[in-house]
# Entry
Amino acid sequence: MLSGLPFSMRRRYMSDMRLLVIEDDSDGAAYLVKAFREQGHVADHAADGIEGYARASEGDYDVLIVDRMLPKLDGLSLISSLRAQKIETPALILSALGQVDDRVKGLRAGGDDYLPKPYAFSELLARVEVLARRKGGANAQETHYHVADLELDRLSHKVSRAGKDIPLQPREFRLLEYLMRHAGQVVTRTMLLENVWDYHFDPQTNVIDVHISRLRGKIDKGHAVQLLHTIRGAGYMIRDGAR
Amino acid sequence: MTALGKLFRTTAFKLAVVYSIVFAAAASIVVFNVGRQVRIVLEDQIAETLDADIRGLADQYSQGGVQQLVQSIERRIRQPGGDIYLLTSFAGDPIVGNIATLPKGVLEQTSLIETIYQRPGESKATHHALARVFTLSGNYRLLVGHDVEELENLRRILRHALASSLGWLVLIGAVGGLLVARRVLMRVDAMSASATAIMGGDLAERLPVGGSGDELDRLAENLNAMLTRIETLLKGMKEVSDNIAHDLRTPLTRLRNNADAAMRELDPQAQKLSLGKVIEDADELIKIFDALLMIARAESGSGPKMELVDVTQTAADVAELYEAAAEERGVAFGSDIEQGLMVRGSRELIAQALSNLLDNGLKYGVPPAPGASASLRLSARRQGSMALIAVEDRGPGVPPEDRDRVLERFVRLEASRTLPGSGLGLSLVAAIARLHGGALKLEDNAPGLCAIVELPIASGPPQLAAPPRLEQLNVARAH
# Structure
């Protein structure tokens, strides 16, 4: 799934991530470290909150993966302490507590994303990649996105492909905006539901797939090069397939 | 602790002691006051008698001079009784009287005085008397008095009566207190023994009720009512956990079998497929656990923070989320949402409830008759003080006798058993509705099912709602 990526992007964001897994469950940590390394990333492990804090404040990590319940120093306190030290390394909180209030608490403590256990590794990987890219000078402030000949202007709310305007519904616009902000990265269904619809539950119906296929009908139909790709077992990605 | 020690520590005993003391003090005050009043009355009487006596003797003096006065006094002295007399000359020498000695200065007093005196022939005994001195012309001084020995006797009698009755009062109070304390203590001991039995696991045991309807009975009745409630809840919980154990066994067995099959699979491709099934089974179990946990949290009332939720907006959002999926399945989707419906609650949970109902509508709301067109409708409106959010389909519906049952955990109707699902969707919707102080009602849509979530409308002004997020503003501008 990484083969078609632009070279520069893969080098910086996809195979070069330095990750710190702070997790006291040794089996879970070993599984994560092994899985990240198989993806070509550098992954370190800290087994408790104090060690995690020390390593996170010294090492130059792209993303911290922090378990919420840790011995010696709990995950939320660890992140608050780092933020108080002006260490802004993006942090993803893993937690067995999956309720909305727990998530709000986690994000308020300075976490950048929150993933309830258990999770699919593909979901975690996709989220970590998004956070790593945010650290590397994200284009969240950009007002104009383009992928190949697809263009989106955030100010005028105009979308065009090959110079031809494409009218979109407000929700479709936000969906495309999110996909294009993370162009070249896998975006999962739950990420879309969280960021485009602001819901954190899991609908039993494939509602997101249908919205994606409608969007695809509008931006890819009639064009030789498909931009909106389905990544099997993970989610979706917008990328310039020609390169 | 000994039985007696326990008795002394009871509240009833302590109260008995305090009351004994209070009664004794009150009785003392009463007796003291009675004595005082009696004394005042008697003294008044004596003073009047003395005044009359003096007036009579003064008359004798003015009629017959000193000689007649002396004769009158001598006559009166001879009469029995406690009256005392003394007549002195201008020089202060006694002329006639039945007093041997007087303290100095008594004869100079003009008002009623209390004094001691000695009788002639008695060298030691002193007596008390109330007396009055009157000066006659020629500087004769006449003292007329009355012995107050009776008054002293009365005082003594009252003191004695007080002392002896105080003893009885304290004794009766203490014994009464002990008896009451023992009675109360025995009943409390009985209640305590029942409580110990209940703590030991015998939940059917109840506290004894005396039947007199007193405070202890009322306490026992209330505690018994509480125990009955706890017993019902525990029974319900046991039923639920039995159900959970039973209903989790099926997917767990499937998971185990799939793992077993994967292990024995030799072909790598087929093995991968089997392992994929194992992961699917595990995900399914996690979903069941999440749903159960959420139902439990909603039912215990320890749900998320309640805030003002714009139900109109939420229903429209969810409708928009599902519209495309419905149309893709060939289900005609419509929505009719009233403006300005505000509810106090959790936006996320309300959206989840609507999502569950729409999932159900898409899954089970397919008309059984071939060729009939499927349709799904989401509506929200105000009725009195409630917001009614309804999801209507044209499927086979739910028979009236099953409508309560399908709200229970893990209950799935025969017709739907072939479709995937855990039987928890409607339970969660019902729990969410209850958490918000509302209810989930299932009605006949003739044909089809009409599921209505009733939520109490928030009384506060809608302006209290959180300001729309920036991103929403952006979208609004795009219209």
